[in-house]
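Narrative of accomplishments. A recurring question from our advisory board has been how the design workflow behaves on a single, concrete structure rather than in aggregate. To address it, we present the structure tokens for one chain from the evaluation set, followed by the sequence designed for it. No filtering or post-editing was applied between the two.
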């Protein structure tokens, strides 16, 4: 695992603790997660300040929130395959805890905290930048600030159209790695779109984004 995260730990116990869920042991990753959350936010804030020297505080806060939310960190943890090294209690392991977004996102933050304690801020900053670098580079500060569902709802309300309805039309995959498919139905002007995601919420956002893009093209 040290090789996967590209940091060789002087204190190997730190990495072991970072990958230990509270269901497995009282000596778990919660305190490291607390520390890692702060370090992660600091590193990302610094990176955003350097990349967008004229951005307002509100814009920077929005961008940081998009980079360090649970879904984003879950995706990074999947890329690092942290789930394969997680130490989980029997119940969590049996119900697919090694693929659960909240557990994996927390584990990533804990690893950040472990790297910080092991080698200092510079090493932790390098680790975060390495794993979030592509996402930082892809940021478009001019992209809409609102999430797709909110944007779609406001578009419809402004035209006095009925609000969209969302319904789950399919669930696939194992219990620990489910994928949801959601349908977005808009009665006026008459549109049905579909979206998918690792959670119902993510799938709803995906279907709303598809609907909004189609409606925008009609204007």
């Amino acid at each position: 695992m040290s090789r996967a995260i590209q940091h060789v730990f002087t204190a190997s116990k730190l990495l072991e603790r970072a990958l230990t869920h509270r269901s497995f042991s009282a000596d778990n990753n919660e305190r490291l997660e607390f520390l890692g959350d702060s370090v992660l936010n600091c590193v990302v804030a610094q990176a955003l300040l350097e990349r967008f020297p004229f951005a307002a505080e509100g814009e920077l806060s929005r961008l940081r929130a998009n980079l360090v939310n649970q879904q984003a960190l879950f995706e990074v943890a999947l890329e690092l395959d942290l789930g394969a090294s997680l130490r989980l209690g029997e119940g969590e392991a049996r119900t697919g805890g090694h693929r659960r977004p909240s557990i994996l996102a927390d584990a990533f933050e804990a690893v950040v905290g472990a790297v910080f304690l092991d080698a200092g801020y510079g090493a932790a900053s390098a680790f975060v930048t390495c794993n979030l670098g592509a996402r930082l580079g892809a940021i478009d500060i001019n992209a809409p600030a609102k999430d797709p569902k909110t944007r779609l709802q406001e578009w419809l309300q402004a035209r006095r159209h009925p609000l969209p309805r969302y319904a789950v039309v399919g669930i696939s995959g194992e219990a620990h790695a489910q994928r949801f498919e959601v349908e977005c139905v808009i009665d006026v002007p008459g549109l049905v779109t579909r979206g998918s995601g690792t959670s119902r919420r993510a799938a709803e956002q995906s279907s709303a984004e598809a609907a909004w893009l189609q409606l925008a093209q009609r204007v």
